[in-house]
């Protein structure tokens, strides 16, 4: 594939990196998944579930867009919080374009202002596209317009665009600087998304000319172990008390094919430790008579089997690592 300019002076292929930032729950992971078209980043209704820079790759005729999904940038309260912010800053300084996500259904808050301020410190050549996410949640065009203006006032953005990764399609002609997207476009989940192709075009336009960086069809280069750990983490977070998400860390200890299995009936043994900070949290994760942990295991196993394409035996253990978020030694052990 040639990466030189075509006769009109446009490069025939672009490739590079984009990164979405935004306060927790802004919809970054969902957007990554919707653009890539498969489940690579972990989403949940709870804030702060994304702990690793997971890349999803958008393959197009004219470009390859590598999406780096980061933890939420926020005012740090613990050592873990500080480290997460460092990860985000390091990522921001390396990408070609940044997408600043803010949800349409919530007013601009201190978290958004904090991030906008961080973004204004980026080297001037890194363009920032402001993305008003969850546009489907605001039915009133005037309100959506007001939210776009509010977002625009937060910084000096290269573009501003409302999108929806899921939910019902909006009517054509709704407000917004890029309101001409294809409202009928389908998201991978089957529901109609809105303006994803417009957003992809805007991101791609900011990439340098260059050949593909990854082989065709590859969706993520995140090591399997990390993806498996994230799937367990997601399953363990479902339906638990509010304080638990921040106290959960998942480490895959081992993944080995079971010996003595017939070639046509392989089984992968996956051993996973789920770390919590206190014995009381361990009890929550395990549930009465181990019932909850069993559900978590069943859910996670299904996802892992789908990811790896092989039957899996999942061994889940819950361990207490006291106050791991505040202890540098434990943080290192858990991979932060
Ligand atoms: N209606 C609607 N809901 C959305 C949309 N995008 C995300 N959501 C929901 O918003 C919640 C948070 O989305 P995530 O993608 O996990 O948000 P995030 O910014 O990655 O969150 P962290 O990992 O906590 O930083 C989930 O419940 C999503 O289903 C959207 O376009 N429309």
Instruction: Tell me, briefly, the overall form.
Output: globular
Indicate the structural class: alpha/beta
In terms of DSSP E residues, the strand content is: 15-25%
Provide the low-confidence segments as ranges. Answer: 45-52, 168-191
Q: Considering the protein shown, what is the CATH homologous superfamily of the largest domain?
A: P-loop containing nucleotide triphosphate hydrolases
Question: Fraction of residues in helices?
Answer: 25-40%
- List ligands, each type once: guanosine-5'-triphosphate
**Gross CATH architecture of the largest domain:** 3-Layer(aba) Sandwich
Spatial gap, N to C terminus:
39 Å
The averaged pLDDT comes out at 78
Largest sheet: 6 strands, mixed
State the helix count: 9
Task: Report what the structure shows.
The chain has 336 residues and is an alpha/beta fold. The protein folds into 2 domains: 14-205, P-loop containing nucleotide triphosphate hydrolases (Rossmann fold); 224-333, 2-Layer Sandwich (GMP Synthetase, Chain A, domain 3). The protein is 30% helix and 20% strand. The protein has a 6-stranded mixed sheet with strand order 2-3-1-4-5-6, with helices on both faces. A 3-stranded mixed sheet has the order 7-8-9. Helix 4 (141-152) links the parallel strand 5 (128-133) and strand 6. Helix 6 runs antiparallel to helix 8 (291-308). The radius of gyration is 21 Å and the shape is globular. Residues 45-52 and 168-191 have low confidence and may be disordered. It binds guanosine-5'-triphosphate (GTP). Residues 22, 24-30, 43-45, 47-50, 72, 133-134, 136-137, 164-167 line the site of guanosine-5'-triphosphate.
